[in-house]
Design a protein that fits this description.
CATH superfamily of the largest domain: MM3350-like
Number of helices: 3
Strand order of the largest sheet: 5-4-3-6-7-1-2-8
Largest sheet: 8 strands, mixed
Oligomer: single chain
CATH class of the largest domain: Alpha Beta
CATH topology of the largest domain: Structural Genomics Hypothetical 15.5 Kd Protein In mrcA-pckA Intergenic Region, Chain A
Strand content: 25-35%
Mean pLDDT: 82
Number of strands: 8
Distance between the termini: 72 Å
Shape: globular
Length: 180
């Protein structure tokens, strides 16, 4: 049995993907197909969330075993599509950037009974995928560099890319003697 998924992004109206996957494939197989088709770095964490009719997250299926002892923790490599998907119209959220809460919306659009697939395959592709990780994800200070430079220049600080710490000829004059 084949599941046909339509994948959409809220960041780009032109981005549409359709992926066919065998019901016996795992969520990890679907994850790898998405990663390959979008050109994403597969070393980054991602999760699937089964969703209700209004796209509310219900059950999480993680890429890695999170070691949660209470309750069942679902891992992509051990979770078959057919164990959680069984009707047309079911919704899944694929979160690929946890820092910015960026997601794809996935809907099971068709169930085809007459064939099998070894691994998921993209059957339709339109538009460019959004960037996997936004540039500002890991920036500690979110003030853009241009604004920082302007602020420093306002108070008379040179902005040639180097910081001036004055003369540091004698460390002990500044910090005192170092005790052992």
């Amino acid at each position: 049995m084949i599941y046909r998924f339509r994948i959409l992004s809220n960041e780009s109206e032109l981005f549409i993907r359709e992926i066919d996957a065998d019901a016996r494939n795992t969520f990890e197989d679907l994850h790898l197909a998405i990663q390959e088709n979008t050109g994403f770095d597969s070393s980054q964490l991602a999760s699937f969330f089964l969703a209700d009719k209004k796209w509310g997250k219900t059950i999480e299926i993680t890429l890695l075993d999170m070691g949660i002892e209470q309750g069942a923790s679902l891992v992509m490599s051990k979770t078959l599509l057919k164990d959680h998907l069984n009707r047309k119209g079911q919704k899944i959220i694929y979160e690929y950037d946890f820092f910015q809460d960026r997601i794809f919306f996935i809907e099971l659009t068709e169930i085809i009974n007459d064939r099998n697939l070894m691994k998921p395959v993209c059957t339709f592709s339109n538009g460019e995928a959004p960037e996997q990780i936004m540039e500002d994800d890991f920036r500690i200070d979110s003030t853009p560099k241009k604004k920082k430079k302007e602020k420093l220049e306002e108070v008379g600080v040179e902005t040639d890319g180097r910081m001036d710490f004055g003369d540091l000829e004698d460390y002990s004059q500044l910090y005192g003697e170092i005790e052992e």
